[in-house]
From TrEMBL:
<dbReference type="Pfam" id="PF00515">
    <property type="entry name" value="TPR_1"/>
</dbReference>
<dbReference type="InterPro" id="IPR011990">
    <property type="entry name" value="TPR-like_helical_dom_sf"/>
</dbReference>
<dbReference type="Pfam" id="PF13424">
    <property type="entry name" value="TPR_12"/>
</dbReference>
<feature type="repeat" description="TPR">
    <location>
        <begin position="140"/>
        <end position="173"/>
    </location>
</feature>
<dbReference type="InterPro" id="IPR050498">
    <property type="entry name" value="Ycf3"/>
</dbReference>
<feature type="repeat" description="TPR">
    <location>
        <begin position="106"/>
        <end position="139"/>
    </location>
</feature>
<feature type="repeat" description="TPR">
    <location>
        <begin position="174"/>
        <end position="207"/>
    </location>
</feature>
<protein>
    <submittedName>
        <fullName>Tetratricopeptide repeat protein</fullName>
    </submittedName>
</protein>
<keyword id="KW-0677">Repeat</keyword>
<keyword id="KW-0802">TPR repeat</keyword>
<dbReference type="InterPro" id="IPR019734">
    <property type="entry name" value="TPR_rpt"/>
</dbReference>
Length: 226
């Protein structure tokens, strides 16, 4: 099999983040019987569906579990993933420096919180979104991002309130519709989940991770109707 194609280098974060990436936890028993090809496929799937952080975790597990099969191409791929994750940490440092200046602005708080979200540091991200909202209570992106942080922190009712408020402020934000769909999906409410995700698709079919959740919602709805 040819060596995997390195991931696209992450561009510098824009002035205001429009959504979040989801990061989940790898369950150890599932990968114990993977072949080398299955490991490589899993790393690629993690990258496409969840982002660099989970792909890097999976790559490190591949290296640990099957060191004899972890070749030069796999090492190069892992290095590129690590570089992209490191860029997120550098962006956090950049925004922290900006926030040390007098009169910090909304984008620095919101974007530092966003970078923390991508790294899976959900509880750490919430205070930044609180500050962004305190500075400008009509900031839809900060409500949406905080809603997702609440969802991943196990505070579902707060998550729903924030995401819905974000949509009141900006009804055409595909990221907020996607997050609403994720909320409903994770609550086992597949019909409203699919409706929210399809609305997100109609607004912007390229919204990250949208297609994956659309597939999950459709499959779960089909299974529940049988």
């Amino acid at each position: 099999m040819a060596s995997p194609t390195p991931p696209r280098r992450r561009a510098n974060l824009g002035p205001i983040s429009t959504g979040i990436d989801t990061v989940s936890t790898v369950d150890a028993p599932a990968y114990l019987s993977f072949s080398a090809e299955q490991w490589r496929s899993s790393v690629q799937i993690c990258l496409r569906c969840e982002g660099e952080l989970l792909a890097l975790r999976m790559s490190k597990l591949f290296e640990k579990e099957r060191p004899g099969d972890f070749d030069a191409g796999d090492r190069a791929f892992q290095a590129a993933l690590r570089e992209n994750v490191d860029k997120l940490q550098l962006s956090i440092d950049k925004y922290t420096a900006l926030l040390a200046r007098p009169n910090p602005d909304l984008s620095a708080y919101n974007n530092r919180g966003y970078a923390l979200l991508v790294l899976g540091k959900y509880k750490e991200a919430i205070p930044d979104f609180n500050q962004a909202i305190a500075l400008r209570a009509v900031e839809a992106y900060a409500y949406n991002n905080r809603g997702f942080a609440y969802l991943r922190s196990g505070r579902a009712s707060k998550a729903l309130a924030d995401i819905q408020h974000s949509l009141q402020l900006d009804p055409v934000n595909s990221y907020a519709h996607r997050n609403l769909g994720i909320y409903f999906y994770e609550q086992g409410q597949y019909e409203p989940a699919l409706a929210a995700l399809e609305r997100a698709q109609a607004l912007n079919a390229q919204t990250p991770h949208l297609q994956r959740y659309l597939q999950l919602a459709k499959h779960s709805l089909d299974q529940s109707s049988q």
